[in-house]
Amino acid sequence: MTRPDEIRIGDAERDTVTTALHDHFAAGRLDQAELDERLDAALAAKTEGDLRTIVRDLPGHNGLPEAVRPYRGGHPFAHRHPGMRHGHPAWEGHHPAWAARRRPGFPAFPILLGVFLIVTFTAGPATAFFAVFQLALLVWVIRAIMLTVTHRRAQRR
């Protein structure tokens, strides 16, 4: 069986590591000489292990996927979701990523459905479709602007 560090890599993996190296250079963790040396090594790397040795001493994101821990008893899915008690999302009632989505927000779907039904019975289904489409587009644009503002505020902190 081949170890993950012995698996050959492609240009996409090399590109993510070189991007991470540039980020570390911008953060001041590497000087120009170290960056050049590591970039040359990253572009010449043939396996994931070669890339891992290049970024081994750098904290945070390094462009490589997180190493998969081997199964050592317990539940077979426990290594995938470390914050979960039983391992598999179905046994917890929901996936951990869905927990953030369970917050009150703008009830767009019921409102759009109501608008569609009202306009369908008054002006016809074609008019209702275009009215709901325009409202949905408006809601989507407003939501995108709000998410962008929220994301930028979070990045400043």
E-strand count:
0
What is the strand content?
A: under 5%
Ends apart, CA distance between termini: 45 Å
What coarse outline follows from CA principal-axis ratios? Answer: elongated
Helicity level: 55-70%
| Assembly status | single chain
Radius of gyration: 24 Å
Mean pLDDT: 77
| Tally of contiguous helical segments | 7
Task: Give the helix/strand class.
Answer: mainly alpha
Largest sheet: none
* Sequence stretches where pLDDT stays below 50 over 5 or more residues: 83-95
Order of helices and strands: HHHHHHH
Can you walk me through this structure?
It is elongated, with a radius of gyration of 24 Å. Mean pLDDT is 77; it is low at 83-95. The chain has seven helices and no strands. It has 157 residues and is an all-alpha fold.
Helix and strand topology:
Layout: H1 11-26, H2 32-44, H3 48-55, H4 89-92, H5 96-99, H6 108-123, H7 125-156
